[in-house]
Write a structure and sequence with these properties.
3 copies of one chain form a homotrimer. The first copy, chain A, is α+β, with helices and mostly antiparallel strands. Helices cover about 20% and strands about 30% of the residues of chain A. The first copy, chain A, is globular. Strand 1 of chain A pairs antiparallel with strand 9 (about 195-200) of chain B.
């Protein structure tokens, strides 16, 4: 089918249409607490198409060292159909797709929980995302409440590629104008409680092992190991463009008029979107802990404990929490680890200054009689599938 | 066929070749008024290959909200062969391809007129561009003149994808060195006066309508409606790289030595290339007025009324001018609208401050006894094909 | 084959694993002089996949004017299978792949020699790189030594695409912690001493010659010609991201905590990675000297004589050194030329200020009783295959 239109010279119209200010409307995006009912499901706008190039560019921008995300030949030699999108990109994009309904009116992002990567995303795939409101904790009419949500992203075959939960602090609407309505959702909320992960891995990749270091295999990690990642990354104003490059529409990250008009400690320069901060930290760590990983199973208990701004230099430390065999896959093992982010102090100096307290969750410190660490910006627990040393 | 060359060690030569300063040449680009004869045709250099990734990156950099330019699956479900290049990208690239002959010596870009998009640009397409000088208004030997030009871009099958007219203010060459000559043009100037637009649209896209909002369909717009777009975008120094990323070779946008050496109000920091400013404004507006558009027919009467610089935050307002049915295509309708850009003031504050005057063309204000608005940076009229609400 | 894992809720572990600071390790990258034994071969980590989009983006970021790297249709019309990666990108990527073993602990990059491009890199190709230590000049235990290395990059078919030599100044390790070990290299060091270059060129490209200027053909260059390139490029903080976008892991270029902690004249803001500086200079020159080139045979005697920083504006001059016929390929000729880079002064002003001395190698100036030029940042000799004027 096709539509045919005879184009004609475009007449100038504006001078002939009187300006009627009473016909003004001011659409607002996001959802206030009133608009987040437990059980409600949102289909998020737009979707996001992945390409080899934008996957490579993401991995390189965020300093990925695992060849799996940088080298398509290496990825295929390991059994993948093609270059897979890095977990960080899939996570960043899914988080961003959800912003309009989940967090564009949020006061604070309180944490990431039970993040699970279920399927590779390949070049040409298009993700869409859905959120279900699981719970809403009201704390009275004058205080913001806390919502717990579950978000999933699916590919164009409606297969779930990622699912996670978040807790978000949101205000009641009060006298503010209403937000744009959400479209009706025609589909059942996707997702699984005990998903089965199937990876196309072959145990003996037909490629030189010289593309990764010799001391980042499964056998090189033991519970308790602390790894101080040598390099930092100075974040520039690039972060403003990167925000919408991964699909995030929140003006706090790219609109200085908006950010400076905020009250309290959010007021000032645009804040770096947290997903980007996490991606840089994970990339800085990758040279030492994940260059031989073949899958990120997921992460949990993720908290942005301080905001980051253009000009900040971020650094990272990892701490190994557990190592496990994998039944039926003796070429690989599972490694659980903590990832800690700091800013404007090197990771080595932060460890010297704060010692063991760096690895204590910030929101448990008050009860433990400890001070929060102002230089610390992020903490999370990760779980990775890592190659054993080739023989 | 092939060429075979035996490579040998490359000998160092420079010390043996005496420096002869009299053999210096200083090529200059652009065309002075003397070099813009009515009837003359230029074929512009280089050409520009589109890819899925650079199309997606453009759409995201400029904050596009229409899934048609972000989601290849959505585009195909609407009848397109593949992801189409956004009109803003096709316009930016075509403008840029023409810079060397049209405006690299321009004093001022006076306006865009009768911009018409005639065919989708798909991944893998390569555009070339041509300009014909339509008219030259001389205003005496001491004053810059005004040229009216017509530019078209064609794909690799020589099909016109875009055509427009511009007015540009240009100086006589005077005693300045001549510019590089233009190559002879071997082809007839392409383009059509009353082009027929044929779009591969199907009326019932096989995709969830949840990817766009429920209140941006054809039925949601009525003449006179004013829509204040909520968010702004802070432009960073990214604009310098973006200029040549779309093919624009004008040093005013990326060479601080050049920009600071200019006289008058152009002197100072590099000025943001106007095509980029328009693209950001259009993107900021897209969430409210064009996320359900399937084609931009064109625009006219486009003026950059103030320059923008790195650090500026831009915002946008739209005003609906007309709505029309389309014969033989009852799933769509045409919406004409004004797009207004402001900087370093929110769109809402600008409307409150300036009221109806925001929508009055700046170059008519003197005659109407009105003041120009210093915060206003852009104005244009657009014409879009927009989906009716699905039933 | 595949690996199947039943995903279960991810338990929080960190609170249960006591922090044992004695289990800390601090991996360091790079090689000290002690670790660079003549004859030693390194296989560099990661590899790098090229795509049409990242090739186009590189060419445009660095202001390339040769349509061969911007226009896939033009490239194919000249006989190439597809868009070739620009020599600058292939060089930048290969240099970067080698950083971890070649120069991540370097004090100074002393020069590029005998750089030879042997084969086109096409979209989808993946490069890996190898370095052999050719020579190590020790200058006593208290002074850094100088290594001469040979680096090659190969595509996924193990065909050499680029080879070059570098001299690098490196310190002894002393009391510093050791660096991460290099993996064993299983393959013979690739490369050839007198390589045969075979290019798929057809003598009569089936495409309009209007895509390049009429005065940049082989016949337009004569030994001694000096060409002052009109435009400069202001380098922004973009350089920090670009560093790892081409695969370079050296923190001096993107980690402000690292760069400010350096001593002497390297201390301060992150220094622009030299490969990027060269790429901008070459791009600025391309409009005048290489828009009709079909191959860069190579370059030699390349020196970064001053560092560049964000905010600097760079400019370029070229001087023709030799022109040669090519046996059996009468549609082309070889042009050798010097490329000189300056910063924060226009190329024209630098020529006026320094005259012939601009073209004298900086490291020969002391012996010649001349002053070094503080505004000069780069010098190199290039050798290009350029089209003769079409008849």
């Amino acid at each position: 089918m096709s539509v045919t239109i005879q184009l004609t010279p475009q007449a100038e119209l504006s001078a002939g249409i009187p300006v009627a200010l009473e016909k003004t409307r001011q659409p607002h995006y996001g959802r206030y607490l009133d608009e987040l009912e437990p059980g409600q499901v949102f289909e998020h706008p737009r979707g996001f198409t992945f390409t080899t190039s934008n996957m490579l560019t993401f991995a390189r921008t965020f300093m990925q060292a695992n060849p799996l995300y940088l080298n398509a030949h290496y990825a295929r030699a390991h059994g993948f159909n093609d270059l897979p999108g890095s977990p960080q990109m899939v996570f960043n994009v899914t988080l961003s797709l959800g912003v309009q309904n989940d967090s564009e009116k949020a006061i604070a992002n309180l944490g990431y929980y039970q993040v699970q990567f279920l399927r590779p995303v390949y070049p040409g795939d298009t993700l869409r995302a859905f959120t279900k409101v699981l719970e809403r904790k009201d704390r009275g009419p004058d205080k913001p409440g806390i919502t717990r949500i579950r978000t999933v992203s699916v590919n164009q075959h409606d297969e779930v590629v990622l699912q996670y939960e978040r807790k978000i602090m949101v205000s009641w609407r009060g006298t503010r104008p209403p937000t744009t309505p959400a479209p009706n959702v025609a589909v059942a909320f996707p997702g699984a409680n005990r998903p089965l992960l199937q990876l196309p891995l072959n145990g003996k990749p037909l490629i030189s092992s010289g593309l990764t270091g010799p001391n980042t295999y499964f056998e090189d990690f033991a519970p308790g190991d602390i790894i101080v990642h040598a390099n930092g990354r100075t974040i520039t104003e690039e972060h403003m463009a990167l925000t919408y490059l991964v699909g995030n529409s929140h003006p706090l990250h790219f609109d200085r008029l908006f950010s400076t008009a905020q009250s309290g400690k959010m007021s000032g320069e645009p804040i770096v979107y947290g997903g980007l901060v996490f991606a840089w930290l994970e990339g800085l760590a990758s040279r030492d802990v994940s260059e031989n990983a073949v899958w990120e199973l997921g992460f949990t208990e993720g908290y942005h404990t301080q905001p980051a701004f253009a000009g900040d230099t971020v650094g990272a430390l990892s701490r190994i929490l557990a190592v496990e065999d994998v039944a039926g896959a003796d070429a690989y093992g599972l490694v659980s680890m903590q990832l800690i982010g700091v800013k404007n102090i090197t990771a080595a100096a932060a460890l010297e200054k704060y010692g063991a307290d760096l690895f204590v969750k910030e929101d448990t410190k008050r009860d433990a009689g400890k001070d929060k660490i102002a230089d610390k910006i992020f903490e999370i627990e990760r779980r990775l599938l890592i190659k054993r040393r080739p023989r």
